[in-house]
């Protein structure tokens, strides 16, 4: 009788340990980004600063690089996708962009929107831009594949004004902004082309862009920093992996 009880106890311990091991493995492979808490009163919850920042530059950057969490609802996201997906599916993913800034993507521009989606676009414009600002009439729709990347670049002042705003659909992602060594007002006219430089001594910031969030990049953040969307190999925010799947961004730009 005693021997039977001991065997039952050993079996239970064995299965408990096996269950714990499986649970642990599951935790280690899961996308840990859900553990990162967002605090609307703490900018550091969505930003990770790297390098030695001058205090005034950091202060200005925080004012000029804003993220609005949960800008749209699940339903609103689906309504936008319902409108744009039929057209995007007819396009092939491209490997190279003409200005070498994007890889594995497809894109289009849209001026006319279904009424319910035009309401969302108008809300985006009212949130991101000053009242007297004029925005480009065509909205940029950029579909980036799961293995696609956006390379470091500064949008040319010839094609875009002081504010760029983007709505993130389908996936979380990490944007990285790095101190630029080029004055955009003295740069060539090539749209978004950015010369390769050693960034090891430059200060930078990673910004967490969750699904359905809105980023607003203006003034110093727009002109004085390159911005890029990190590949899955580099997509780490505060020590945790942020797995980027297919991502669509709805981008509005101020007129130059």
UniProtKB/TrEMBL annotation:
GO biological process: DNA damage response; fatty acid metabolic process
InterPro entries recorded: AlkB-like_sf, ALKBH7-like
Cofactors named for this entry: Fe(2+)
Top-level taxon of origin: Eukaryota
Any one annotated GO CC term: mitochondrial matrix
UniProt protein name: Alpha-ketoglutarate-dependent dioxygenase alkB homolog 7, mitochondrial
Organism of derivation: Chironomus riparius
């Amino acid at each position: 009788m005693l021997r039977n009880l001991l065997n039952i106890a050993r079996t239970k311990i064995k299965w408990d340990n096996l269950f714990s091991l499986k649970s642990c493995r599951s935790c280690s492979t899961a996308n840990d980004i859900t553990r990162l808490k967002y605090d609307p009163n703490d900018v550091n919850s969505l930003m990770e600063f790297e390098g030695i920042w001058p205090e005034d530059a950091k202060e200005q950057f925080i004012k000029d690089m804003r993220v609005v969490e949960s800008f749209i609802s699940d339903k609103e996201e689906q309504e936008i996708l319902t409108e744009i997906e039929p057209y995007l599916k007819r396009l092939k993913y491209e490997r190279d962009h003409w200005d070498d800034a994007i890889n594995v993507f497809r894109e289009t521009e849209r001026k006319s929107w279904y009424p319910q989606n035009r309401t969302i676009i108008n809300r985006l414009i009212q949130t991101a831009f000053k009242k007297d600002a004029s925005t480009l009439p065509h909205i940029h729709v950029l579909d980036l594949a799961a293995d696609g990347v956006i390379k470091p670049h500064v949008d040319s002042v010839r094609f875009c004004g002081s504010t760029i705003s983007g709505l993130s659909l389908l996936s979380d992602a990490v944007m990285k902004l790095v101190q630029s060594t080029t004055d955009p007002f003295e740069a060539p006219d090539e749209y978004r082309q950015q010369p390769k430089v050693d960034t090891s001594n430059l200060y930078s910031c990673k910004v967490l862009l969750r699904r359905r969030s809105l980023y607003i990049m203006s003034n110093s953040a727009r002109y004085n920093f390159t911005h890029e969307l990190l590949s899955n190999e580099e997509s780490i925010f505060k020590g945790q992996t942020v797995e980027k799947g297919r991502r669509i961004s709805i981008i509005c730009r101020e007129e130059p």
